[in-house]
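Give me structure tokens for this 444-residue protein.
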Amino acid sequence: MLAGAARAELPRLGDPSLQGFSGSDEKKLGQAFYQTLRASLKFVDDVALNHYLTSLGEKLLTHSDAAAHNFKFFIIQSDVINAFAGPDAYIGINSGLILTARNESELAGVMAHEIAHVSQRHIARMIDESSSNSAITFGALLAAILVGAQNPEAAQALIATGIAGSYQNSINFTRQNEYEADRVGIGILANAGIDPGGMVGFFKLLMARSHGLELEYLRTHPLSINRVSEAEHRLAGVKPGARKDSADFRFAKARLQVLTAKDIDNLISSTPADSVENLYRLGLAYLRLHQTGKAVEMLKQAKQKSRHPWISLALAEAYQQDNQLADARRELEILQKLYPGYLPVTLAYARLLLDNNLDISRSITLLKHQLQTDDKAIVYKMLARAYYLNGQTAAALEATGNQYLKQGYRELALQQYENALNQNSIGETARKRLQSRIKQLKAE
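Here you go.
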């Protein structure tokens, strides 16, 4: 289906006659770009981690010229140190890069640089000035899209060479683009109250590690002594005292390390229980091994040192894994009162209620309220499940349609909306809403 959709909807990006690359063209390409990545690469689909990354990205965006764009931040599970900006403001960060960053300002520095590529419209400008180089690189991208549905292994190979390599190289083909992204990125960091020295610090770290190695980030984001020196020179005009790190980053790094670890036993044996982050790391590691007793012990110790909500979320998960549902519910209800509307808490609480058939109506109320601030596919997905369990089939189908629409699958969304209309239980208000939505989608 993806290959057919790509043929039907994508603009002819390699055509030298293309003039004025439109926002509609960019949106179509961005959706195909992201859907191909989803089909071909392994993503880190963790609610807490993705919420952290998106929140950090949104903090940067509010201090940039790119706030009007609908940015999508995501994590690809890969040891390769890399990050990239795709069409229509899709920003991918490899897990290897996050784990290499020593503090939040270094991660934010990379993100601000990629945001700057979007705000300065380097991608769109390159396509609009279509050349033989862009024809080749976007040909590789389109090939990955077309092959992806039939041969994921071939698609992954094409993505590795077409998107992560020549695609990003085409953005960085001129030094002017990279220097401009550094300059704009440093301004974004300073305005957001995050130490812009993190960008320079990360550059220096990568250059130091590159001796005898070919780091993917340096291949796709060419660095030089002059470029680092110029970025460092720009720091002279920045007021001191900006934030360098955060507890959120430290907990995110610990969580990511456990979720992506290939040898969890070695991780446990090499992690001393000497800090709150390490206690959290150990608790999660024991959870992965289903050793709930040890997990609860580590997480309770961590909770004595910090009230960070991720500790209680992990403790609730440990209780649930050990079938101590009352304790799990207590932890989540406390969190819900302390952090109302916090997406990781809402989803964890709703999931507990649904998994154990505790209070489906309560879960529906929580999820509908969450949509007021987080109109996201993941919320609609859980809401659809809650509606199904509650016997509200039409509402469940509509929620699933909303999920697909958020994910860019218009045809699947239309199917769900039409299925909802065919339900005898549908109310008149819902019927009119769905009819209007279907009409609008078919007209686009």
